[in-house]
Amino acid sequence: MAEVHYKRILLKLSGEALTGSQAFGIEPDVIDRIADEIADAYSLGVQIAIVVGGGNFFRGVMGSSWGMDKAAADYVGMLATIMNCLILQGVLNKKGIQTRVQTAISMPSVAEPFIRLRAIRHLEKNRVVIFGGGTGNPHVTTDTAAALRGAEIKADAILMAKNSVDGVFDADPKTNPNAKRLDYISFADLISQNLKVMDSAAVSLCEQSNIPIIVFDFARNGAIKRLVQGEQIGTLVGSEPPKKMNDTVRV
To answer: Which of 68, 155, 201, 207 could form a disulfide with 73 if both were Cys (CB 3.0 to 4.6 A apart)?
Structure first.
């Protein structure tokens, strides 16, 4: 196996990232490129788990705005994540990568139920594991699902892929042109400064489990492979900054 900095990762993808230039659904070229990025990291011998959102099809807040019960709307959103999981599985399988989908909502006809030890065993057998259905509970975001699954499989890092947002900024770059990207921020500062990268419950869970979060723009070619090899891209959220912060490559 090639030398890597993170041997087991959990990659969090937003559903909206799959839409590309479309307003809805999945753009084939986009999901194919994402699969290639995953394949590049996989070729290094990295164990990869993935959590995918469902916002490209349905978000719970959408249903609530229509007058749906919030819990019912969240369940529909969970089903949307499973649709994305199965599609991503198909694309990865086509590229010769063994993949398993595990869901928090029982759907035995199309996927395995989530079983922690079985997921870990799949990873040890060099299978990519895709987790769908969030945590199986309403009122919980897929960010929290990613943090929870990352803790359960003992991931070395959670890679938080953003769409055209290259890390964590000290202010909203959309409204403040002087906003600066941070190379590093602690878990506590991320929460206290209310920087909207992922929900605070997910950040707290990562802090408790001592799992660093790397927030990066997945549109950068080769970003996932470069990250698992230890290159500094985007922003590291953790308990302490990298030992050689001043010597690392910034992009």
So the answer is: 68
**At residue 130, what is the residue type?**
I
Instruction: Kindly list the distances between the CA atom of residue 107 and the CA atoms of 102, 118, 150, in Å, as whole numbers in the listed order.
Output: 9, 16, 22
Q: What is the pTM of this model?
A: 0.91
Q: How is residue 71 written in tokens?
A: 């819990």
The amino acid at residue 214 is: I
Cβ contacts of residue 135 below 8 Å, gap of 6+? 104, 144, 145, 148
Among candidates 16, 3, 85, 11, which has minimal Cα distance to 44? 3
pLDDT band of residue 165 (cuts 50, 70, 90) is: confident
Q: What is the CA radius of gyration of the chain?
A: 17
Where along the chain do its domains lie?
Answer: 8-247
Residue given tokens 């302490």 in the structure block: 240
